[in-house]
Amino acid sequence: MFGTLPLGASPTLNPPQLPLSGPVFLILTAAGSSTRFGAAKKELLALGGASVLQRALEAFLPLRDLAGILVTYPEGRLDEVAGSIDARCAERAKALPFGLRFAAGGPTRQASVANGLAALCSAARAASPPLDPSSAVVLVHDAARPWVSADTIEAVLASARERGACLPLADLPDTPKTIGPDGFVEAHPRREAIMAAQTPQGFSLGVLERAHAAAAAEGWSATDDTQLWDRYVGKVAWVLGDRKNRKITYREDLPMEETVAFRIGEGWDIHPLVEGRRLMLGGVHLEHPRGEAGHSDGDVLWHAVTDALLGAVGLGDIGAHFPPSDPRWKDADSGVLARLAYDKVLGAGWEIGNIDATVILERPKLGPHRAAIRASIAAALGIPEEAVSVKAKTNEGFGEIGSGDAVEARAVALLRRR
Fold this sequence. Notes:
The chain is α/β, with parallel strands linked by helices. The chain has helices spanning about 50-60, 80-85, 85-95, 110-125, 150-165, 205-220, 225-230, 255-260, 300-310, 320, 335-345, 370-380, 400, and strands at about 25-30, 45, 50, 65-75, 100-105, 135-140, 165-170, 180, 185, 195, 200-205, 235-240, 260-275, 280, 285, 290, 350-360, 390-395, 405-415. It is built from 13 helices and 19 strands.
């Protein structure tokens, strides 16, 4: 069981040889339970089309001396954490000399970082030629801080190389107070004398590993790595942080647009009916002398549904993704196109709540085919049939639809945040 002792013990470890000239490693901490955030794991949440974790990771990829990345994850959730990094980003990370690695976390952040440090130091010592971990820099960063800037990263790295350990500190916008157990304020410290710790925090990789080992042997706990360094190694340098580099702890820490739970999209399409084409509606073939004209199979219902899905998340329309000028989509199955579009919607962090569609067609009658159309749409999108509604209307003999020369479809899609 870890105890908690005040800082200020005499250092017991030798400081690193300065400056630190070795390569740079990154540990992204993502092994927490996100209890204060709510039901979802915050690092896996989609933020502008990529996970929070990926946003944090991408900020470090431009570092010139970056040698490898290690991500900690909660026991049993490796696939989820690894899957939150898209293929393009993962390939860039895997191309680093030490690649992209994962380490199971422990019961505390301190234990999780210790696991990551042990894995990186083991890899460094096993390299050919072996790498002295004490000469390398490790940047420890919260995966729940997706807005870290390049300036902050570079400033921490430069200071850590020169002084052995460094963290970014941000000024407090509010006046701090210290409180007692009796429900009263005990002291009024000067705001200028207190700052808030951020990440990344930079250290000698090998020395920080030994500091963690010393803390584990002593049964001493800390809430960040600079406390361990201060206790077992020496003083920690600091650079000015950035208030934008906030950590997502509560749901209200997200930008307002990311806290919206639902989005609505509307789709509409109309196609002429011509001889020599099949009449397709929601992937179901209806026997009729004429079918929809179009570059793809002309399925007007699928086109309306696809536009509703794309429009709900601001991804344009079906023509932007599958232009009729592209020969790949000639006579294409519109249900396949809808599924490709929905994959983009899922990637942006949204999923279907329900779809309500209306087909305006004079003949043939849609009633006998309604159940098959609902089932076809649900199966193609991987959603329950009860989430799909398909209604039928005629145009009462008016216009091109009323004369049987065209078919029209309208769709509304309600999306919910994944």
